[in-house]
Amino acid sequence: MVFVQIGYTLLYFITEASFNRGMNPHVYITYRNIVAGLAMLPFAYFLERKIRPKLTIALFLEIFILSLLGVGLTLNMYFASLTYTSPTFLASMVNTIASLTFVIAIVLRLEVLDLRKTRGVAKVLGTLVSLAGVMTMTLYKGSIVRNLWDPLMHLNGNTTVHENWLKGSILTVSSCITWSIWYIMQAFTLKRYPAQLSLTTWMSFVGAAQSFVFTVFVQHKPAAWTIGFNIDLWSTLYGGVVMSGLVIFIQLWCTEEKGPVFVTMFNPLSTILVAVLAYFIFGERLYMGSILGGVVVIVGLYLLLWGKEGDQEQTELKEQSSSRSEEQKDPKVLIFTSAGKDMKEEP
Questions:
Q1: At 346, which helix (H) or strand (E)?
Q2: Which of 136, 252, 308, 335 has the fewest C-beta atoms lying within 10 Å of its C-beta?
Q3: How many C-beta neighbours within 10 Å does residue 316 have?
Q4: What is the DSSP string of 244-301?
């Protein structure tokens, strides 16, 4: 998961440089997922031949919805918002996914909330604090933090495209909500389709098709589909092979092993890395509203995670108690031989 957050950190700046040069975000999503599908297909086909379940119509429809939530809809909104805000803002907003996932799980009755216990109160406080941080970043831009020195590197292209902060905020929040639903849904899908490489491949191809259909409606210029041997090509290859391929596979594996909350708890690491690189290396404009809101979101996130830690302890205790009760229901019967001296146990 640390590797995943480093990957996301580099992604923000590579894609921003590409978008600043004029590449369409929706074209980028389409190409990126085609590359991801082609890169993952050989590994999925050969490594999961024996464990891959049969693909039924119902299962394909589930993968279709999962692809829409994780790729087709979410990524298009997410990267479109980058043209209106900044990498630091996006990285901070991603931290709200853990809180949003918790709220949705409560609504769907997938999460137990006991306000009589301290950890239950911590869950609620953490969620409210995180949402307060989101509102701070969205509604309060604040003053610009002055750069201490000239940027060490420059992002190529037009740097004045961040023209509508409110529009970008709405797109980012919407993508975080659908992303949260995606994390919850993939935990259920993995139980019926426990082949992470194959699921990643399916989501890449189906998501690319969904994004293509959407892009055809919103982008009518054929020239937008042309990619030269420049940053557009490298951002597409990086996004496809590393992010939509390898990173999604790692997240699916971690979700199956540790659950969706474990996956989201590492998001603040990317926030810190992005803020440091954006401010000190690339000379990105940094606003006080983003700093204050980001700190509030991280505090709320770890309040929520502290409350969730108690759930894991309770689950382990329940499993231990259930195993003990099963052992008690299976007593040993003492059988004596006719001599009365030898004794043995028999279930």
A1: strand 343-346
A2: 335
A3: 10
A4: IIIIHHHHHHHHHHH-HHHHHTTHHHHHHHHHHIIIIIS---EEHHHHHHHHHHHHHH
Instruction: Give the amino acid at 196.
Output: Q
Place of tokens 């589930």: 62
Residue 287's beta-bridge partner residues? Answer: 144
* Alpha-helical runs (H) found in the chain: 2-20, 25-47, 57-67, 74-82, 87-93, 96-107, 118-139, 165-192, 196-218, 231-237, 248-258, 260-264, 267-276, 288-328
Distance CA 106, CA 319 (A): 22
Q: Which tens digits make up the pLDDT trace of 167-219?
A: 888 888 899 899 889 988 988 898 899 898 999 999 999 999 999 999 998 88
Q: Tell me, what DSSP letter sits at residue 153?
A: S
Residue type, 236: T
Convert the pLDDT of each residue in 28-59 to its tens digit: 999 999 999 999 999 999 989 888 998 899 99
Closest CA to 30 of 244, 190, 187: 244
Q: Is the dihedral of CA 134, 135, 138, 141 positive or negative?
A: negative
- The Cα 23–Cα 344 span in angstroms is 78
Write the DSSP string, 221-257: -GGGG---TTHHHHHHHIIIIIIIIIIHHHHHHHHHH
The Cα 133–Cα 140 span in angstroms is: 10
